[in-house]
Automatic annotation (TrEMBL):
Segments forming domain VTT: 30-160
PANTHER family xref list: ALKALINE PHOSPHATASE LIKE PROTEIN, UNDECAPRENYL PHOSPHATE TRANSPORTER A
Main location, first listed in the record: membrane
Keyword tags: Cell membrane, Membrane, Transmembrane, Transmembrane helix
DNA-binding is among the record's keywords: no
Protein name: DedA family protein
Membrane spanning residue stretches: 12-30, 50-72, 140-162, 168-193
Lineage, uppermost ranks: Bacteria, Pseudomonadati, Pseudomonadota, Alphaproteobacteria, Sphingomonadales
Membrane association type: Multi-pass membrane protein
UniProt subcellular location: Cell membrane
Organism: Sphingoaurantiacus capsulatus
Length: 202
């Protein structure tokens, strides 16, 4: 999966970033928590602008989210629930998802859209109750864009920082490896000793 994401970014650039995020938001097979740090690493290498790549990611994800919003408004709760029961496995959509975020949305309104954009699972399907409730499109897009901007921006910065310091990180891991292995060995030895004492006591 990492190779696929990396090749898509290298070959298609900003379009590839937007496409990956569109797919992730429409049918979530690839988490943004994996895509955006790799985008940040590519930006650190000078392959693209971090700001431009983040903007492309936001546009792609917003397009995917808007399709769920439009589907909810077009189908309505009953038809959408039947669609989820029959074909939801192909879209990662369970019938309960149609109703599950509705309570949050009814209580907090547009801010639910903003918060859910950084929560795995809800990130995709929160568009459905927004569409079912007839939330104005402009308000939906504003909260969606803002939520994605915060989350993808943070993930991109993490990847960018890692990309700039990748050699340092490798050196730190290499220097810490003996201590990590020693800690693991001590932990295993302690667990074996504890298990042996427990059997003797029994």
């Amino acid at each position: 999966m990492i190779d696929f994401i990396t090749r898509t970014i290298e070959q298609l650039g900003y379009v590839g970033v937007a496409l990956l995020m569109f797919i992730e938001t429409l049918i979530p097979p690839i988490p943004s928590e994996l895509i955006m740090p790799l985008v940040g690493v590519a930006a650190a290498r000078g392959e693209m602008s971090l700001a431009g790549a983040t903007f492309a990611a936001i546009l792609g994800a917003t397009a995917g989210a808007t399709m769920w919003y439009a589907a909810a408004r077009a189908f309505g709760p009953d038809r959408l629930r039947r669609l989820a029961e029959r074909h939801g496995r192909f879209f990662g959509l369970a019938a309960k998802v149609v109703d599950k975020p509705a309570a949050w949305f009814a209580r907090y309104g547009g801010w639910t859209i903003f918060i859910a954009r950084i929560v795995p699972g809800m990130r995709v399907h929160i568009s459905i109750p927004a569409g079912l409730a007839g939330m104005p499109l402009g308000r939906f897009l504003a909260f969606t864009f803002a939520g994605f901007a915060v989350w993808y921006g943070l993930l991109g910065i993490v990847g960018y920082t890692l990309g700039l310091n990748v050699e340092l990180i490798v050196k730190l891991i290499a220097s810490a490896a003996p201590w990590l292995w020693a800690s693991v060995a001590l932990l295993i030895g302690w667990r074996l000793l504890a298990a042996r004492r427990a059997r003797v006591a029994f």
